[in-house]
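Q: What does the assembly look like in three dimensions?
Context provided by user:
Components: two
Sequences:
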Amino acid sequence: MDALTAHLDELGHGLVTTVHLTVVTTIGALLLGVVVATLRVCPVPLLRSVGTVYVEVLQNLPLLALLVLFVFALPTIGITFPLFTSAAIVIAAYEGAYLAEAIRAGINTVGVGQAEAARAIGLTFSQSLRYVILPQGLRAVVQPMGNICIALLMNTSLAAAVGVVELTQAANNVNLVEAQPIAVFTGAGLAYMLLALLIGRLAGTLERRWAIVR
Amino acid sequence: MNPNQQILFDVPGPRAQRRIRIATVLGALAVLGGLAWAVHRFASYGELAAERWQPFTTWPIWRYLLDALWATLLAAAATAVLSATLGLLLALGRLSAHRPVRWLAGAYVEVFRTVPVLLLIYVTLFALPQYGLNFPLFWKLVVPLVVANSAAFAEIFRAGIKALDRGQTEAGLAIGLRRGQVMRLVVLPQALLQLTPSLVSQLVGLLKDTSLGFVVSYTELLYSGQVLSSYTNLLIQTFLVVALIYLVVNASLSKLARVLQARNGRFTVRGRAAEPDPAAPLLTRGGTR
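A: Here is the predicted structure of the complete assembly.
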């Protein structure tokens, strides 16, 4: 326990970094997810293929390989970002592919009649998506999207492997000094569980509030 | 593309076709522009030079990479077998009639589903050796992966078992089977068949997780890429080739999952389904014993 209280500052800093990374990345991934899901259902065949290729590539590569590629290899062709920004970009791009698939599943749950009605009153593709399909489709997949956000939270720990000092790395650093692994790692694990619980609760609340009673 | 998405837009008329053509041209220009920019970047930093890609046409480099791929597959296979077995036991535990068993299995799953794998790896790397548990390198990677993935597998199995029609269990109990027999002879065979696609997609996730060998310095694909690039100094080339290998292996697995989904979880095409055997419903496995 002493190990935890003595390094509260360091661990707190790690926790803040993890939360910061999670929030920034979630917002980025959500925007990207909506864009990619739109690409995958749009009337232009080329753009549909672009969306499909994006999802296939990002879902089939390990996140750690992407992080390593981005952080260690891209500087050789002159592309460098601050470490935190790199991690945020890569994780957002990776989780964006998963969110896109969840959103597409949501779009598929919207009744065919809704889309037909939207077109019958003269809405264009983007209008019907914006005003009719997405508002209903997104509500149907709040829970799956919450689960993806929990996965995202856990994946932010991989940023530690390329040098971002977030909660996992902070715990490891403290343990290297204090050599009290049980207290330190259990503390960090509990923090992750609490954050995951929080996201799960939030998703549950939003789902209840937004659910469509049919 | 399924019919539901097709319904988002009509068969394009002349104006819509013109718009689609314009969007196609713009999209193509954007994609080509991105590619051209990437090529320009590579070229202006001299990374496109032939001698910087030549090594990847030679056998020694490929033998090294294929050895690494083998190590990746080995770790993935060990993790898959162990965590699927443990996951099945946990799922059965969560559905058990005994409250303590249910509670323990539930606690295990809930805890390890929400703790990052990297944290578990740090525990095996830095905490367990203090208590005399110093695994060989291979197990330092596989043990934490099994702990995390067994929780994920447990959830898949539990969902599959619960999704099966209750009538199956009730019918099994009605003909006098015990609970264990119902699970083994009636529920599991059907639930597992339904679950094959989800289990194969979980394999993709698991194979991606083995890239954490990078952290424990187990010579799987990603770590070997790191070692190789520090010898050859071909950083971006090596990691692009490594990424390509991951992509090919995982995309094939994902494809398999989709094919299985379309075939209802069966590895072979169901030719016999075309001409149903009238006696089939009576010839169940339990009945012929």
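Follow-up: Chain B has one domain: 57-265.
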